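Attaching the record inline, Q. Sequence:
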Amino acid sequence: QVQLQESGPGLVKPSQTLSLTCSVTSASITTGYWFWSWIRQSPGKGLEWIGAIGPAGDIISQPSLRSRTSISRDTSKNQFMLQLDSVTPEGTAIYYCARQTNSYFSFWGQGTQINVSS
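Structure, as predicted:
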């Protein structure tokens, strides 16, 4: 069973950079045809796809967030990371990592709550 686990700071101040890590077990992020994605859900809103990294390291991202988003990976640890620059209070959300095939997300992490507040 593929498992994903997010880790992050919990609280970030406005204008700072949010850094999250997703650790993957029982699947390699460098093989197969899946993308490894970041998704968030703000209070009272639907899911928002942020971006993803493919098995060859190719990156796709949401155009509205692209200028502030950096997605990378550590293949030695089977982890992938998200950096979101210049966060605002609107960035308060539960952040999830997931395995993606086209528009279908087959495995999800449990999510990590991120609050953006001074």
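The mean pLDDT is 96. The first strand starts at residue 3 and ends at 7.

More tomorrow.
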